[in-house]
Amino acid sequence: MTIPLSVLDLAPVDSRRDTTEALQSTTALAQRTEELGYRRFWVAEHHNMPAIASSSPAVLIAHLAASTQRIRVGSGGVMLPNHAPLVVAEQFGTLASLHPGRIDLGIGRAPGTDRRTAFALRRTIEGLSAEDFPNELAELIGMLAGDPERLAAVPAPAQLPEVWLLGSSGFSAQLAGSLGLPFSFAHHFSAANTEPALELYRSSFRPSQWLERPHTMIAVNVTCADTDADAERLARPGWLSFLRLRTGRPIALPTVEEAASYEFTAAESAFVAERRQGQGIGSQQTVSAQLAELIERTGTDELMVTSQIYDLKDRLRSYELVAELFAARSENSVSEA
After folding, report:
1. Of 22, 38, 102, 180, which is the most exposed, with the fewest CB atoms less than 10 Å away?
2. Nearest one of 113, 166, 157, 134 to 6, comparing CA atoms
3. Are 38 and 322 in contact (CB under 8 A)?
4. CATH number, domain with residue 165
5. What's the domain range around 176?
6. Does 137 fall in a domain?
7. pLDDT tens digit sequence for 110-143
8. Total domain count for the chain?
């Protein structure tokens, strides 16, 4: 397993700590994964969710990039329905000017929130239509790239951020392919759609000024520990948190003890079992087999790891064990050598 390895983080807020501590933990994770040779560190935009502190990716990216030296820092992603394209272009033009060659702009189509919050963000409850989203995406990219037919974003960075299209459906896959953009798929919550979406992306791909050939990355949920039993125990709080989110009752990330004492109903257990499919949970040996099978089956060019592990020490240990599997073969370790 020698493909580039990256991190997707949600700045998880747990039940016994506040958002300041959550953001400090995310900073520590970015610094440690840089040392381990991970290529990218992305943060996701979510709103009105008590377990997630990454509601403002551009602000957090600025802090994380200033707190690290080499790792690429970006959004996984910025949800375009929540923002005017010019605002995003100006934010990431500023970030790319401050940190040349280190900023990624991952763009998503879903609002990533409830209707009330969507209205508060952009004064509308309607998402971008199948026609609106490609137009606004093209407008955003044109503003960043200095398209003479569009309003130019200022500051204009000397080196553009690397633009990715994110998705969990065939729509984004096909659009990314037709535009010749790299594509990142949300395998961690849409595992059943991964292979069809990647195939659609590859078959739709047209060479562009950004890419000559298709380039993919998939995000996978991984909990790695010294034993399979330890990993199962550490993964349980994330399952319970995601279950509460999907049932409209979001909570802060519970402790391992709180999650262990919760009795899942038969329906909830079935939900968790479905969510586990295609993810990495277990000892280093177990996770090695799981991720190797996933990489071979999907043919992905890069892998992005995410986790909802309660304790920072355990979260760092998980990323260390995974990095050992990949022998830290990223651009960071090459340049450091």
Report:
1. 180
2. 166
3. no
4. 3.20.20.30
5. 5-222+298-336
6. yes
7. 776 677 777 787 766 565 666 789 999 999 999 9
8. 1
